Amino acid sequence: MKRIVIVEDDPSIAEMTKMMLQRSGFEVLVCDNGREAVDFIKKARPALILLDVMLPGMDGSAIARELSKIEETAFIPIVVTSALEESKQLFNGITQVRGFCSKPFTLKKLLDAINTALK
Prior knowledge:
alpha/beta; about 20% strand
């Protein structure tokens, strides 16, 4: 069972996404704070990270850049989630970012992005 870490500060979005992904056969852990995300991800060792852009403490692009510098997290694919399509530009040049899902997203769109990123 592949493990996914969701980094999302909105509890309702985090819980809904977690339930959808668990029903689709994934093990899911949630981190709700940008400041704690890097350490959380290092400990969790997920197959994929679902990363929100706007987070308290440290935004998604700063987290992605930090993860790309750490040997044990630099290979983990990231799918970015955001309500703002323009947020894609913040992740230019970060090779770990393999997908972008605009909020609100459907389960199909999210699973397509996750499955593509995991290939």
